[in-house]
Write a structure and sequence with these properties.
Blueprint: E1 3-7, E2 11-13, E3 18-25, E4 32-39, E5 46-52, E6 57-60, E7 68-73, E8 78-83, E9 92-100, H1 109-116, E10 128-129, E11 133-138
Parallel strand pairs: 2-11
Antiparallel strand pairs: 1-3, 3-8, 4-5, 4-9, 5-6, 7-8, 9-10, 9-11
């Protein structure tokens, strides 16, 4: 069973930087995606960034492109979200989420990431979630 644990949230001023970490375990193969979602009070959860582990491709929602970077450290079994030039609109609870591709009838991992970050024609949810870490950006 995949398990995820986020850390690194906190209070930061607009324009500053923050790095979130997601410790991951339990994957049965390299064919999976892992990414970051966020939810602000009263708003719908949004896919922020996604990593297709099989080939290393990364994906971002438009509002964070050029500011956020997702990366992985396989030795530490950890995925990071480097958040630079943060804005108040970046505030919210950030969740780490993942999904393994276990059937050839499922979308490819790259397609999973594209859908998860809001660029497809339908909503798509990953199936394993951490408990979240709160990020607050002050103006």
């Amino acid at each position: 069973q995949v398990q995820l644990a986020e850390s690194g949230g906190g209070l930061v001023q607009s324009g500053e930087s923050l790095r979130l970490s997601c410790a991951a375990s339990g994957f049965t193969s390299n064919n999976y995606v892992i990414g970051w979602f966020r939810q602000a009070p009263g708003k719908v959860r949004e896919g922020v960034s996604c990593l297709s582990n099989s080939d290393g491709s990364t994906y971002y929602t438009d509002s964070v492109k050029g500011r956020f970077t997702i990366s992985r450290d396989n030795a530490k079994k950890t995925v990071y979200l480097q958040m630079n030039s943060v804005k108040p609109d970046d505030s919210g609870v950030y969740y780490c989420a993942a999904k393994e591709r276990v059937s050839p009838f499922e979308p490819t991992t790259d397609s999973m990431c594209i859908l998860a970050t809001g660029h497809g024609t339908q909503r798509y949810d990953l199936d394993t979630w951490g408990k979240g870490t709160l990020v607050t950006v002050s103006s």
